[in-house]
């Protein structure tokens, strides 16, 4: 009762004040206060830009100004940031104000404004890396006016499920990041998993994604994978504890600069012999991500099982045929054989600058 009484007294006092200040004001009249719309806005002709690792990309950002505004001031500030996969933080990429320009972190020396006109705030990124994939925000501030727009940078590439020699469900999130990195890849995003699922991917083991969720794609519902009566889709375990929970991981890789190849050798090799043979050929033993990229992006096809850097044995089939993945194009997996006693071929990789 007391709060209601206080509110009534405050309202009465405010009404009396208005009566004193504006005696001619009719009590039944409503006053609307309007503001002019934004006099500066930021637009992007594309919401998504697609490129490849090692290439360049231009993220469009164009400034539109009301004619009542003067020409862009020398203090107009253009700032580009990268949104983290969980959208909780922003990473500084590039800032420009008049002649002062600065790039940050891994973007240092690789980014600049396109600057085709005083109102062009588009960002050019060169020598793209896997880590450049994601969403970027362009922010323009000119005096009291400001606006932002978000642009996605996508990379041509391939997603693949991964677990190490330890076996399935042995990776916490940070182990998963390291495992993908060691295989020339990054932890995949949900969008990349979704695209792979739409492309027909069906995998019944849950894996980490870059936003900290654990999910897996199912195109052929069955009892061990969510149930036979469920519909196709991406099964989602939600956010998991990055330290304590253990799963597999979905990795993503893109085009590479170099040559992936099967080493022609007079005999089959142990793992250590394969590493040495690649080195003698001026190369390194290939990584899992490099095999997937060669298979998916270049159509590499070889029906010979060979060692890879993580100690697994695999072979890529782009054209299904008898005795070589007869039902589908795929990277075939022979597991993690005994390194000292099992004999296979070797897949090597020679990098190019």
From TrEMBL:
One GO biological process term: glial cell differentiation
Taxonomy, superkingdom: Eukaryota
Subcellular compartments: Secreted, Extracellular space, Extracellular matrix
Disulfide pattern: 204-225, 303-324
InterPro entries given in the database record: C-type_lectin-like/link_sf, CTDL_fold, Hyaluronan_bind_Proteoglycan, Ig-like_dom, Ig-like_dom_sf, Ig-like_fold, Ig_sub, Ig_V-set
UniProt keyword annotations, A-Z: Disulfide bond, Extracellular matrix, Glycoprotein, Hyaluronic acid, Immunoglobulin domain, Repeat, Secreted, Signal
Gene Ontology CC terms: extracellular space; perineuronal net; synapse
Main subcellular location of this protein, as a coarse class: secreted
Name of the protein in question: Hyaluronan and proteoglycan link protein 1
Species of the source: Parambassis ranga (Indian glassy fish)
